[in-house]
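Task: sequence design from structure.
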């Protein structure tokens, strides 16, 4: 049997930790899973609007970037400005993975 206090500790929300997870995610799927977890926590009242908005700012830009990068890898055309942005950021992602 798990003590009641331990269950509370397992369910606590650490904004800084979640933001770090969002920054370090390397696939759209991981970001979508993280966003779904955030939305569930918000719906249950475990986090407030501030945490939801902070996580939105951390997740959505990276989700868009990784989705565009995946589209390019899969051979779907991307507009010029987006393509340049994806190429500049993809180099940074590769450097992060290598370290």
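Answer:
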């Amino acid at each position: 049997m798990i003590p009641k206090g331990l269950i509370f500790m397992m369910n606590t929300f650490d904004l800084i930790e979640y933001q770090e997870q969002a920054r370090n995610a390397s696939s759209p799927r991981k970001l979508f899973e993280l966003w779904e977890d955030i939305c569930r926590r918000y719906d249950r009242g475990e986090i407030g609007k501030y945490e939801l908005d902070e996580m939105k700012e951390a997740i959505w830009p990276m989700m868009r970037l990784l989705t565009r990068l995946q589209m390019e890898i899969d051979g779907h055309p991307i507009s010029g400005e987006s393509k340049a942005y994806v190429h500049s950021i993809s180099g940074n992602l590769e450097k992060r993975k290598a370290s």
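Residues 1-10 have pLDDT under 50 and may be disordered.
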